[in-house]
Amino acid sequence: MTLLPPPSPKKVKKLLAFFTPEIPINQLINSFQPSPETGILLLAILIGGSTGMGVVTFHYLIELIHHLMLEELMGKIGNLGAWTLAAVPIMGGLIVGLMRWRTQDFGPGLSSLIADTEGKPVKHKLRPVTKMIAAAVSLGSGASLGPEGPSVEIGTSFGVLLSDILQVSQERQRLLLGAGAAAGLAAGFNAPIAGVFFALEIVMGTTSFATSAVSVVLLAAVVAALIAQIGLGSQPAFALPAYQVRSYLELPLYLGLGLCASLISLTYKESIRIFKAGFDGNLPNLHLLRKIPQWFKPIIGGVIVGLVGWRYPQILGIGYGIVQAMLQDEDFSLNLLLILLVLKLLMTSISAGSGFVGGLFAPAMYLGASLGSAYAKILALIIPTIEQYMAAPPAYAMVGMAAVLAGSVRAPLTAIIMLFELTRDYRIVLPLMAAVGLSVWLVERIKPTMDSNSNLQQIGLPELKDEKVEIWQQMLVVDAMVYNPQRLLGSLGVLDGAKMMINQRSRSALIIDESNNLLGILSLEDIRRNLPIWGPEVNSLVDIRENFATQTLLDICTTDIIYAWEDEPLSEAIDRMELRGLHQLPVVARDNPNCILGLLEKEQIQLTCNLTAINKALDHYLPALPTVVN
C-alpha cells in the first residue's frame, strides 16, 4: 500500500483554522460561493427555521408558567379564598421586576430594530432569550398583553443576528429583518400570508415588491409556519363560526362598526401612551413615580391587574379563551361586554406601561371582539326589527377584531388577510374590507401618523428626524432645486435634442421659445417612448431620420405643466409630484409662470435631504457648515 506524504504544516494549520470557532461564518459561506437563488433559499430556511423553533419554545414556556402559577400555585393557596387569584399577577410582576433589576434592559423593540436598519444610532445589545423569558412570565402570570409582539421580535432578532454575522448592507439588513418579522407572525398566528403582508406593510414599509425580497419573506414565513404547525398543531388561533349573509343592505351597519372601531383604536393607543408616560413620571401630579426604580414598577402593575382580575378574571392573560367564547356566541350580557371592553383597555395600558413584556395584537383583537358583540346587541336593542336582517353577533365580533387591530397598528392589509386566514370564508371579505378601510381612514384623519412619510418612502427618500421634527418638512423648494437646468428650444429636432441631452448627461430639460418663455418639460423617458421600433416598417436609418425630420421637441414634451414655487414647503411640492407620478417640477416665479428659476428633481431632493441630515448631525460636533449651493 502506498502511503500519501504527510500534509505540510501550512496545510494542517489552514485545515485546523477552518474548523475552529474563531473563523467567521460569513467566510465559511463565501467559500462555497452560492448562487443568488441558493443564497435566498438558505437565508429563508435559516430565519424561518430558527424563528419557528423559537416561537414554539416560547409558547411551551408560556404554558409551563401558566400551569405552575394558575394551576399548581392556585391549587395550594386557592382554598384561602378567591382573593388569592390577585397574587398570581403580583408574583409575575415581582419576577419581571427582578429580571429588570438584574439586566436593566431587555433589548430593543421592533421600532428600534427598524430604526437600526435606517442608519440611526440606536444600537442596543440583543437579549432575545431574556426578553422571551420575561414575556413568558408576563403572559403566563396574567398580564393583559399578547404573544404576537414577542413572537415577531424573536424573528427579527434572528434576522438582525444573521445580518450582523454576514455583514450585509443596510438594504439587505432591512430585508432580513422583514423576513424574521414575517416568520414570527406566521408562526405565532399560524397565518403565513398575514405574516408576509405584515413584513411588507409595517417592517419594510414598501409597496413595491422586488422578487428577491418577496421570495425571502415568503419562504421564511412558510418555513416558520410549518415548524409551528408541527410543534403547536395546525389549528388556527380561533375556531370561528361560519359567516352568514342575511342581507347585503347590512353593509352600512358594518361601516358604523368601522367608525366605532376607529374611536376604540385611537383610545387604545392613546391610553397606552398616557400610562407609559405616567409610570415614567412625565405627567402632572405623577412626578413622584420618577423616584421609584424601574424594576419595582411591574410589581405595581401586577397589584393593579391582580386586584381587577380578582373581580373580573376574564381580563387576565392573553384572552384567547374569552375571544373564542364571544365568537361562539356564548351568553355575554351587554353590560358585561362593555365592562370587559373598558377594563381590558385599561389593564393592557397598565401592563404595558408598568414594564410587563408582551404584544398589543391580542388585546386589540379582544377589544374588537367585545366591541363587535356589544355593537350587534345595541343595534338589536335599539331597533328590534333589524335583527332579522343582521348576522349574528359573532360576525360583528370577527369584523370588529380586524377593524380595531387595523386601526391600532395601521396595517389594514395585514388585518384583512389575517382574519381571512382565520375564517377561511370568502363571504366575510366585503364587510371586512368596508369596516377596516373606514377604521384606518378615520384614524389617519383624526390622528395622522407623525413618524412616517409615505411620500418620501415612495420616492425612495430616507425618513429624517431631528428632535422629533422631520427635516424635509422644514425645507423649502429653493433648498433642493437645480438652479441652472438645461433649456432647449421647442423648435429643435428630436434627434438633435436627444443628442444634446446625452452630451450634457441630463435627465430632463425645460422646453422654451425664443423669448425664454416656458413651453413644456422633456425627459429622457419622453424621447425613449417616441423612438421608432425597429421592424419591417423601418428599413433603414434614412427612414428614421425622415420620420423625425418633422418632429420637434415641442411635439413630444409635456405641455400640461405642474409648477413649483421656490418659497413653498418642499413637502407640498413632493405631494404634487407623487399625486401625478412626476419625476420633476419646474420652479417658476409666483407672479410670472414664464420666469424660470430652476428645476426640482427627485434625485436632487434625495441628495439635499441627506446632506441636510448630515449637516444637522455635525452641528453637535463642528461649527455650522456653509449652506450647500447647487
Radius of gyration: 30 Å
Helix-strand category: mainly alpha
The quaternary organization reads as single chain
Low-confidence stretches: 11-23, 450-469, 534-538
Write down the overall mean pLDDT.
Answer: 77
Q: State the distance separating the first and last CA atoms.
A: 78 Å
Q: Total number of helical segments? A: 27
Provide the helix percentage.
55-70%
Shape: elongated
How many extended strands? 8
Beta-strand residue percentage: 5-15%
For the biggest β-sheet, the strand order reads 3-4-5
- Sheet having the most strands: 3 strands, mixed
Can you walk through the features of this model?
Strand 7 (584-589) and strand 8 (592-601) form a beta hairpin. This protein has helices at residues 9-19, 25-32, 36-77, 87-103, 110-117, 128-140, 148-166, 170-189, 192-203, 211-232, 251-279, 297-311, 320-327, 334-354, 361-382, 393-409, 412-423, 429-446, 454-458, 471-474, 477-480, 494-504, 524-530, 541-549, 553-556, 570-580, 602-618, and strands spanning 465-466, 469-470, 487-489, 508-512, 518-523, 564-565, 584-589, 592-601. Helix 11 (251-279) packs across helix 18 (429-446) and helix 17 (412-423) runs antiparallel to helix 18. The model is unreliable at 11-23, 450-469 and 534-538 (pLDDT under 50). The strands form 3 sheets. The chain has a 3-stranded mixed sheet with strand order 3-4-5. A 3-stranded mixed sheet has the order 6-7-8. Strands 1-2 form a two-stranded antiparallel sheet. With 630 residues, the protein is mainly α. It is elongated and about 95 Å long.
Give the tags.
630 residues, mainly alpha, 3-stranded mixed sheet, 8 strands, 6% strand, elongated
